[in-house]
């Protein structure tokens, strides 16, 4: 894009990071990230490189980057947490998942269906079936409330 005088958006940089990691490896992606202008190093780019660390799996790098994202007060969504949850499940450390879920809830980060699913898989990996059922019930409750809230909003919008 730069060769064609096109300006990359921050989202373009994040996508480029992910593609670089897939095509040329994590080292190329990390070098690209390091050389980005500070203005481009937002939550999307940090999240992209975090996801790369989680896929490799590079536990210390992933945990360190997540802490840096918090220190920088970058807006966090469920995505970086989902990456870490998958990492811990992949490397056989599902016991770390509960603290991440609690952190998300404390920080008012909404758990999405993917989060609930990987959380249940982590619990199943340690044969905690009663907790899987509890999480499933929580997921159904949140789903019903979300649908009810959306329906209310739609009805309000259409009644005016």
Structure notes:
The chain has 160 residues and is an all-alpha fold. The protein folds into 2 domains: 1-75, Alpha Horseshoe (Serine Threonine Protein Phosphatase 5, Tetratricopeptide repeat), CATH 1.25.40; 77-160, no CATH class. Helices cover 72% and strands 0% of the residues. The chain is built from 8 helices and no strands. The protein has helices at residues 10-24, 26-34, 43-55, 59-71, 78-90, 97-106, 113-125, 129-158. α1 runs antiparallel to α2 (26-34), α3 (43-55) runs parallel beside α5 and α7 (113-125) packs antiparallel against α8. The radius of gyration is 19 Å and the shape is globular. The model has no long low-confidence stretch (mean pLDDT 89).
Could you give a short description of this structure?
This protein has 160 residues and is mainly α. The chain contains eight helices and no strands. 72% of the residues lie in helices and 0% in strands.
Q: What attributes characterize this protein structure?
A:
single chain; 160 residues; mainly alpha; Serine Threonine Protein Phosphatase 5, Tetratricopeptide repeat; 2 domains; 0% strand; globular; TPR-like_helical_dom_sf; Pentatricopeptide repeat-containing protein
Strand content: under 5%
Helical content stands at: over 70%
Poorly predicted segments: none
Rg = 19 Å
Structural class call reads mainly alpha
Tally the helices.
8
How would the global form be characterised?
A: globular
If you average the pLDDT, what whole number results?
Answer: 89
| First-last Cα distance | 46 Å
Largest sheet: none
Order of helices and strands: HHHHHHHH
Number of strands: 0
- Summed up, the domain count is 2
């Amino acid at each position: 894009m730069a060769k064609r005088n096109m300006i990359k958006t921050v989202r373009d940089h994040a996508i480029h990071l992910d593609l670089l990691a897939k095509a040329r490896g994590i080292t190329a992606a990390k070098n690209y990230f390091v050389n980005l202008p500070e203005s481009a190093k937002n939550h999307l780019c940090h999240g992209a490189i975090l996801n790369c660390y989680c896929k490799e799996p590079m536990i210390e790098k992933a945990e360190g980057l997540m802490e840096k994202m918090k220190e920088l007060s970058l807006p966090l969504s469920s995505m970086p947490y989902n990456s870490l949850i998958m990492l811990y499940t992949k490397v056989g450390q599902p016991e770390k998942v509960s603290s991440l879920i609690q952190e998300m809830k404390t920080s008012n980060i909404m758990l999405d269906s993917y989060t609930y699913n990987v959380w249940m898989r982590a619990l199943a990996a340690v044969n905690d079936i009663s907790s899987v059922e509890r999480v499933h019930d929580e997921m159904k409750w949140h789903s019903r409330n979300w649908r009810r809230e959306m329906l209310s909003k739609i009805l309000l919008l259409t009644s005016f």
